[in-house]
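Standup notes
- DV: blocked on the single-chain target, sequence here:
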Amino acid sequence: MMSFTFYEIETAPENVKPQLEASKKAFGFVPGLHKALAASPQVLEIYKHLHTEFQNSSFNNAELTVVWQTINYYHHCNYCLPAHTGIAHMMQVDEELIDALSKGEPVADPKLRALQETTYAIVDQRGNLTDAQLDKFYSAGYGNQQLLEILLGLAQKVLSNYTNHLAKTPVDEAFKKFVV
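- DV (later): unblocked, structure below
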């Protein structure tokens, strides 16, 4: 059976080395996900682009974390859950929020809970939300821009979660302490 190669900068194809070097510069190490994605320079590039664009969306750090972790939990991504827990700490997201999301529990803040429930419903119902679900999201103070930005986060997470399932990406040392 063929398995995924986790490329190091030194062993990667020449056309992907600059991307891995940029990852090392950004994180201080090359994340395992990036090492797996290096098998396709186009996928690594678009993943990183989606990540950047999602971070530049209208969501604040807590909201980004809600979307990421809700999707990671739904997809049972054993790599992304601890990785985004660590990232949430670096982004100075509230500890109670981080903890609830890592366990798949409802979050305390009503606005963030509406975001969590809507994100979950989008994934679970393949985007087919009811009028009541949409009304609850809009009543929480979100609009169509944020609805579409959830899809942007979902696109990023489908690439990473599914890659990690296929590759069986081991959790990076920096994030092992966040494995639940």
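- Follow-up: The chain has nine helices and no strands.
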